[in-house]
Design brief:
3 domains, Rossmann fold, seven-stranded antiparallel sheet, alpha/beta, Elongation Factor Tu (Ef-tu), domain 3
């Protein structure tokens, strides 16, 4: 999977102070960060860029930041159980404000922290990395996401290049989870209910109903990892799309703890075969499809 960061800019970690926190819906809470620690934070400018947030166990403590070693971060002394990945909803360089939208639920390190977030609390955040990379010649795009992928999809829709028509499709757990999306010329938004770990996802069915992108179209999909398996197979094998015409990004795994327990319980030889797939020089998209097929057969 292609990931992009500014050339010559090393990965760094910063302290980010909560400036404000507000509920966007019963399912999503927005936290705006700022403070002197973000003075040297730099955005990639890519709409789906993501960062890793480090949450202190004590919400009012100032977390230790990993040092930069050989141009990258060394998390050796950091408690990785307090580290979570989130997309950037907005970066205001002039004001030095970083906005992150959190999907909230009863448990989880990040969700629990976001529910109690208050001005003055501090987290760690690293330099962002972007994934979205369509050809410069597109005239239209389809962005499909569940609730976890919504912040990135909304930012991509709101920052689309002039003249690019955008169809944004968002799968919500329930109607009350809708959040405001800024209107702009050429943007069409469609809300559907399904998936999100509650009921069966409708993403694959929606994708099969859409037109095949030609030389001027692009498709970007983000959501639960297993819900994307059928989507990925349809785009690559069903439609035969070249790799520069689509991107699928697994943002989360439903019942992740149980899934990882089942994976670790596999025969070591089976796990080794799965890991060996990623050592191939074939296109990543082809490896993903084969990996998906193996996991499905294994009941994962």
């Amino acid at each position: 999977m292609s990931r992009r960061r500014p050339e010559g800019v090393p990965m760094r970690a910063f302290h980010a102070e909560v400036m404000a926190a507000v509920d966007l819906s019963p399912s999503m809470r927005r936290v705006v960060f700022g403070g002197p620690g973000l003075a040297e934070f730099r955005s990639t400018g890519i709409g789906d860029e993501y960062v890793r947030l480090l949450f202190p166990e004590d919400p009012w403590a100032r977390p230790e930041l990993p040092p930069v070693i050989d141009g990258d971060l060394d998390y050796g002394s950091i408690d990785l159980s307090r580290l979570r990945t989130y997309t950037v909803r907005r970066w205001d360089a002039r004001a030095g404000r970083l906005t992150i939208d959190f999907v909230v639920h009863p448990d989880g390190v990040a969700a629990g922290w976001a529910l109690q977030a208050q001005p003055g609390q501090v987290v760690g955040v690293n330099s962002p990395t972007g994934i979205y990379d369509p050809p410069a010649t597109i005239s239209w795009q389809v962005l499909v996401a569940d609730l976890a992928g919504l912040p990135a999809a909304a930012r991509l829709a709101e920052t689309a290049a002039d003249g690019v028509r955008t169809h944004l499709i968002v799968e919500l757990p329930h109607e009350s989870a809708r959040v405001p999306i800024a209107e702009r010329p050429g943007l069409e938004v469609r809300w559907i209910v399904g998936g999100n770990g509650h009921i069966g996802s409708r993403m694959e069915g929606v994708m099969r109903s859409l037109p095949k992108p030609g030389s001027d179209g692009y498709i970007w999909v983000a959501g639960e990892t297993r819900a994307l398996r059928g989507v990925r197979a349809h785009l690559r094998r069903g439609l035969g799309l070249p790799v520069d015409r689509y991107k699928t990004v697994g943002y989360w795994t439903a019942d992740a703890e149980r899934w990882f327990e089942a994976y670790e319980a596999l025969d070591p030889a089976v796990r080794k075969d799965l890991e060996r797939l990623w050592q191939s020089e074939r296109p990543v998209e082809e490896i993903e499809l084969e990996y998906d097929e193996h996991l499905t057969r294994l009941g994962l």
